[in-house]
Specification:
Blueprint: E1 3-4, H1 5-16, H2 23-35, H3 39-44, E2 49-50, H4 55-64, H5 70-74, E3 76-79, E4 82-85, H6 97-105, E5 114-119, H7 125-133, E6 137-143, H8 146-158, E7 165-169, E8 182-185, E9 190-191, E10 209-211, H9 216-227, E11 232-236, H10 242-249, E12 256-261, E13 267-273
Parallel strand pairs: 5-6, 5-8, 6-7, 8-11, 9-10
Antiparallel strand pairs: 1-2, 3-4, 11-13, 12-13
Helix pairs in contact: 1-2, 6-7
The structure holds S-adenosylmethionine (SAM).
S-adenosylmethionine (SAM) binds next to helix 7 and strand 6.
């Protein structure tokens, strides 16, 4: 029997108690996504009747009560004011990665012809947003994970960028022999034994963990950037990895190394310039 939206909201919130931090808010977000309506609609249509036996709604509530991220249920994620397809094959883009985009865009000439390589493209969001802003750049987007590349391919196609962003499967830069003007990456950088929240269990683990210490992939990328004398390398990192990056680069004569912060003022990444 159809139920009032208010009752369904309360019932979902109850299922989410002890699973998520804000059960009522999370229940509201689930209903907004399910009904394809905004928050105002949910607040002002409390008496509207909805079918709480709908299999999709039941499946979503069941999965959400196991803390599966909402984005994997809706298969949609917002990033940099755009909507992207997402599924369990790729990491859900994080808001802090928008700083990486801003960092790149503030440092390159938008009219320049250049070859940009992204390592660990996941859903493809970084290359796609950069391609929208850098119309003369050509992109090679690499990932080691075929399921992630499938998500990226779908997004790149949806944005009409298949002719400008080439996807390659490989380990870091092993599949890129071209000269690189700009290297960009949001690599896995969490230590293997770091205890993660339960919702992160549903995301690809090779997108999160960077090795026993955490910065192993970042160090391998630094090696590559130095070896190939890549003029500009912009990389996201963990809030506590600044000293490790500085120490690692100490023996090398780099042109500049600068760190950028996220909205909470935590170190979130770096920009490395290497003289050619
Ligand atoms: C933190 S996720 C970033 C995904 C996406 N760029 C984003 O910012 O949302 C890291 C990505 O690196 C990929 N990856 C992990 N190890 C890799 C390696 N050795 N070579 C290439 N890609 C790798 C993972 O599959 C994952 O898609």
């Amino acid at each position: 029997m159809p139920q009032r939206l208010a009752s369904v909201h309360t019932a979902i919130a109850k299922r989410l108690e002890g699973v998520v931090d804000s059960p009522r808010r999370e229940a509201q977000l689930l209903l907004m996504a399910y009904l394809n309506k905004d928050q105002l609609y949910v607040i002002t249509h409390q008496e509207t009747l909805i079918d709480d036996t709908d299999p999709t709604l039941i499946a979503w509530i069941e999965k959400r009560s196991r803390n599966v991220p909402l984005e994997y249920l809706t298969q949609q994620v917002s990033f940099y004011s755009h909507t992207f397809y997402i599924d369990e094959g790729a990491l859900i883009p994080r808001p802090e990665t928008e700083h990486l985009i801003d960092e790149v865009l503030s440092r390159v000439d938008h009219t320049q012809t250049m070859t940009v390589v992204e390592v660990g493209t996941g859903s493809g969001i970084i290359s796609i947003i950069l391609a929208l802003h850098l119309p003369h750049a050509r992109f090679i987007a690499v990932d080691i994970s075929p399921p992630a590349l499938a998500v990226a391919r779908r997004n790149i196609h949806a944005f009409g960028l298949s002719d400008r962003i080439e996807l390659r499967e490989g380990d870091l830069l092993s599949c890129v022999s071209e000269s690189i003007d700009l290297l960009v990456s949001n690599p896995p950088y969490i230590a293997n034994d770091f205890p993660l929240d339960s919702n992160l269990a549903y995301e690809p683990q090779n997108a999160l963990f960077g090795g026993d210490v955490g910065d192993e992939i970042i160090r391998r990328l630094l090696d590559e950037a130095l070896r190939r004398a890549i003029a500009l390398f912009v990389c996201e990192m963990g809030y506590d990895q600044r000293t490790k990056v500085q120490e690692y680069l100490k023996p090398f004569a780099v042109q500049s190394l600068e760190f950028y912060q996220d909205l909470a003022s935590f170190d979130r990444g770096f920009t490395l310039r290497i003289a050619r």
